[in-house]
């Protein structure tokens, strides 16, 4: 085991290679998350924190659907948000990315740290053929399994941790006791290991419940984006992300930070339940998700921390298997 703080500070340094690709160049940060997954919001906030630390300022910050191709000029770099949506679990997001990549064969593409999952080799190969038509795609990957798949998509592949690590350290807003269970309720949910079934959880919830009724602010943001796009109000469309959504996302993340602060042990099957615990120097027990995203990440980056314990998930006969390269 190693000292947790030293691990976290070392992980931040690995992102300098991203700066090398962007320094001195105009770029657009697109595909930002405007939904109720706090993990994705932490990635966005970590990315923006990294830009600020490095003196980088995107020309525009937008969702994939709110991005207007007319904003792109020759020489502009297109930077896609990172996370775990590279593949066919969330096809609408990947389809939008493929469309933008196809539209701009002469502009550099940078994909921030991702995990890749395809349910079949056929779907993986179809997507890879689209990426391979572009000569300047740079893909940052969070684990070695995804790294192997990414090499089918580009010759420019880099292994780095999640961008949320740029937020370290996050201070607790109060003293904590008891066990918090952050539990997936979506397609990546695993079965709970037998070893944890008798553990008493003081609080049991998921990101959607943490945000709760404030989801109305997300719905409002989407309505604004649709209205601005329909009326071609370009200035407002460009400002929606930085002026409204980014502060609102911080509000949602603060709710999660407050919740974590009043517990001293986190049990989770969400990768960013684990990462937020690490950002706050909290003891955390991590259950693998349905296709191994958590274990591959922890084994690569945080498994040596004295605060982290990884627990193998129970076999789930309904879970699909990650398609790896042949």
From TrEMBL:
Pfam families: PS_pyruv_trans. Residues 37-291 form the Polysaccharide pyruvyl transferase domain. It comes from the Bacteria. InterPro entries: Polysacch_pyruvyl_Trfase. This is Exopolysaccharide biosynthesis protein. It comes from Duganella dendranthematis.
């Amino acid at each position: 085991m190693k000292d947790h703080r030293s691990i976290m500070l070392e992980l931040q340094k690995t992102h300098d290679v991203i700066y090398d690709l962007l320094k001195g160049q105009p770029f657009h940060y697109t595909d930002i998350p405007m939904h109720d997954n706090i993990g994705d919001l932490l990635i966005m906030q970590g990315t923006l924190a990294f830009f600020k630390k490095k003196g980088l300022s995107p020309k525009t910050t937008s969702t994939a659907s709110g991005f207007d191709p007319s904003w792109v000029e020759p020489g502009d770099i297109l930077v896609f948000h990172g996370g775990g949506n590279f593949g066919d679990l969330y096809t609408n997001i990947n389809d939008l990315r493929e469309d933008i990549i196809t539209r701009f064969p002469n502009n550099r593409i940078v994909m921030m740290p991702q995990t890749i999952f395809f349910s079949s080799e056929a779907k993986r190969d179809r997507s890879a053929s689209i990426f391979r038509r572009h000569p300047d795609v740079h893909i940052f990957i969070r684990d070695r399994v995804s790294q192997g798949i990414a090499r089918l998509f580009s010759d420019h592949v880099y292994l780095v941790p999640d961008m949320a690590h740029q937020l370290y350290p996050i201070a607790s807003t109060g003293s904590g006791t008891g066990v918090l269970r952050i539990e997936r309720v979506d397609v990546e949910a695993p079965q709970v290991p037998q070893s944890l079934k008798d553990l008493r959880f003081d609080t049991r919830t998921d990101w959607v419940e943490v945000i709760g009724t404030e989801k109305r602010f997300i719905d409002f943001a989407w309505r604004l984006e649709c209205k601005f796009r329909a009326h071609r109000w370009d200035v407002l469309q460009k400002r929606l992300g930085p002026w409204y959504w980014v502060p609102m996302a911080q509000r949602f993340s603060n709710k999660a930070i407050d919740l974590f602060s009043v517990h001293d042990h986190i049990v989770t099957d969400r990768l960013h339940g684990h990462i937020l615990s690490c950002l706050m120097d909290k003891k955390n027990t991590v259950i693998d998700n349905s296709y191994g995203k958590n274990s591959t990440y922890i084994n690569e980056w945080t498994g040596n921390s004295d605060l982290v314990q990884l627990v193998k998930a129970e076999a789930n006969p309904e879970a699909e298997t990650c398609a790896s390269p042949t």
